[in-house]
Design a protein that fits this description.
about 0% strand; mainly alpha
């Protein structure tokens, strides 16, 4: 075997090493992309759940505030009949 044969063996083994390294990189990149996709799907699910929760909470607060306004009116009217309690309009005039 001459110098050309040894050079051919070295070149072929170098090409095999480069091909194996490239294949390893592609496999690792594919796994990384799968993990990124799973993470994005998880984040999307969390965001959707948070949006749904916000909508429900907003509706609950709206219902509670509309219910409270009527409830506070009733409590104010009832408390105006309690002896010794001044109405808010009278107490505001006294402070002025």
């Amino acid at each position: 075997m001459g110098p050309g044969g040894i050079a051919t063996i070295i070149a072929a083994s170098s090409l095999i090493i480069i091909a194996i390294a490239l294949a390893y990189f592609i496999v690792r990149a594919a796994r990384l992309m799968d993990e990124v996709q799973k993470t994005i799907q998880s984040v999307n699910r969390i965001a959707t759940t948070a949006e749904n929760f916000t909508e429900k909470l907003s509706g609950l607060v709206t219902n509670f505030s509309s219910m409270n306004s009527g409830l506070f009116k009733i409590i104010t009217q009832i408390s105006s009949f309690i002896p010794g309690r001044k109405s808010s309009a009278t107490s505001q005039k006294e402070h002025e």
